[in-house]
Amino acid sequence: MEVFDIDHGSRPSFDSLFKDVTDYAKFKREFFFRLLGNQGGDEITSTKEENKKSDADNKRRGAENEVEEEEEYGTWSKLPMDLQIEIIQCISSFRRDYRNLRDVCRSWRSLVPPLRWIPDSKAIRYPWLVSFQIEDGIFNFYDPTSEFTYEMNTEASNPRILSSCGGWLLLVEGERSIYMLEPFRKMRIDLPLLPQHFNILNGHVFKISKTTKSCHFTRIYRTPSGQLGFLKFLSERAAWTRYSTNDRSFLPSWNNLVSLHGYVYCLDYRGKLGRFQRVGNITEWVILNESQTLCFPSKLWQSFLVLVSFTNKLMAVFVGESGGWVHVVNFNFTTRKWQLVDGLGNLVLFVGRTSIAVEAEEDRLRNKIFFPVFKKADGNSIIFYSLESGRFHSFGSENSCLDFHDWKDFKFLFNSTWIQPKLIPTFR
């Protein structure tokens, strides 16, 4: 199955392409709107004379029967070969039209090669939300900037999504099977089986080293005996190791962990920030803001730890029950305290099992937080929070809400995470 991203921009002029075709205005309008569906681009405007001719054509077409109409449109596939090739070259940079072009007929499809994915570390600026649909057995990739969903079939049966890093997913199937999956090229790397009777779903970090070509995984959890446990995997050793401390006050939350400068950071349900490091045979664990007490307006629903990688800042997003309130804080490593922030500036945050911070190029994305939450009434409308308005919004709607329940019906995609694709589609 092919996966596409969306390019936005102005369309090239078609005047030179069809200047030798009779009834130019009628052909251009019908060809563009019926063949390419007028999807994702600027509407073609006509001159005054063209509009008059188009109106006359519309009246005439209304009186024609369906057979005559089909015969008329069927002549499109009989365009001269050199003109077909020129059209393809002209719109090849608009990938949605490129896909539609392949769907016209067999002859056109034979002229348009399928898209291939090639490596590119700076290919797609904003992350996609990936989720697994059990009923269909497919991965859904949702692009929040264009509100398009791309489906991809893999050999995965019923994976639980843990995290992502560098375009790879970390997945679990069954009780002990855990593996890495590069979904776009369908590359899979199996890791050693998990320890028996071990719940792996919450509180973890997955990181791929660009320099050593290795990966590591850490999970912080509460053991049955009440101790604080650490599960660690290093690809160099290809084995799982477990450590523990006697700290019984720290209560690891559901949120993701963050790896920074060799340390692993973790939030608890009260906003405490813990730091873990394993040096030789010594386990280093400390609660950095031990003396700080955070006061929330009401019950805390979710918390997300976010690393702003290009500035090495550590941020957290605290969300009240049903989104009743949202607090964003920045950690001051000098004072060892969380500091409340009023805005994100040019940043946009994507929070979930893997949380990602990006410098937004578009004004409509700046100072916003995207959650893996959708309006049920419209599955393609993701909910985001604006720090400027202090309300929840969705693209394509003028309505805003103070919390999720104001929309009456919403869904939280628990089996999902944000992924930063490291490939771009090409047709060369």
UniProtKB/TrEMBL annotation:
Residues making up the signal peptide according to the UniProt record: none
Pfam hit, one: Beta-prop_KIB1-4
InterPro entries per UniProt: F-box-like_dom_sf (IPR036047), KIB1-4_b-propeller (IPR005174)
Chain intervals for the UniProt region annotation (Disordered): 44-73
Residues forming coiled coils: none
Domain KIB1-4 beta-propeller: 142-385
Biased composition (Basic and acidic residues): 45-64
Superkingdom, natural source: Eukaryota
PANTHER family named in the record: TRANSMEMBRANE PROTEIN (PTHR33127)
Designated name of the protein: KIB1-4 beta-propeller domain-containing protein
Native species: Rhododendron simsii (Sims's rhododendron)
